[in-house]
Model the fold of this input.
Amino acid sequence: MNGGMVKTFFIFSTTMFFLMGVVMASEACCSEGAKMVVLKVEGMTCASCNVAVNIALRKLDGVVEATASYRLGRAEVEYVPEKVTPKQMIEAINKLGKYKAGIYKAKGGHKR
Ligand SMILES: [Cu+2]
Done:
């Protein structure tokens, strides 16, 4: 490669890196029209509890992503407010029988 090509390649890769960073940052929270809620989940004791709670949440129409943590006793849920409510998520978790869910706090999104 000559100097010009190296320079072009450097600028190109720097630009790509920057664009990837922008895309990743915008994915942190949330997708178009989605909001984030953190649920308090009592009774989770291991990794399979995380999985059970995640599955129950993802089954709900409108839940984009669910991440439960038994260590924190919480589940972070990205959801579409027009389709599903935190109350329905709490019911879905409680229906599993082993856990007790509640609102931890609302996060992100805009105040109305
Ligand atoms: Cu478990």
